[in-house]
Amino acid sequence: MNPWTIIGGVGTTICTENDFIRPLHAVPGDLIVLTKPIGTQIAVNVYEWYTSKPEQLAKMTDKPTDEEIETMYSTACRYMATLNKTSASLMIKHGAHGATDVTGFGILGHATNLAAN
Length: 117
Hints:
Shape: globular
Strand content: under 5%
Structural class: mainly alpha
Oligomer: single chain
Helix content: 40-55%
């Protein structure tokens, strides 16, 4: 636990070209495998609305319960704090052709990038 506020951050390592998979060599017929659930950003947004922006939460037509919001947020945090080391090792072991994350561009944006490359 760090007693000081940290904004931003970076992780660095040294690895060889064979230690990671770029989003460059996908081929038709490759499977898309998600190593973590998608939707963590939505869970974080809803929690933010719940804790500090009730006017945003009120706009939801099918509002989750307080317990569901807490559960979504804690589950999202747990997944975001979990490394993909096992998934990465299995991708290398089984010869995956391409890989990407699913972040700000969403699954469609990243899948489009894989297909374009």
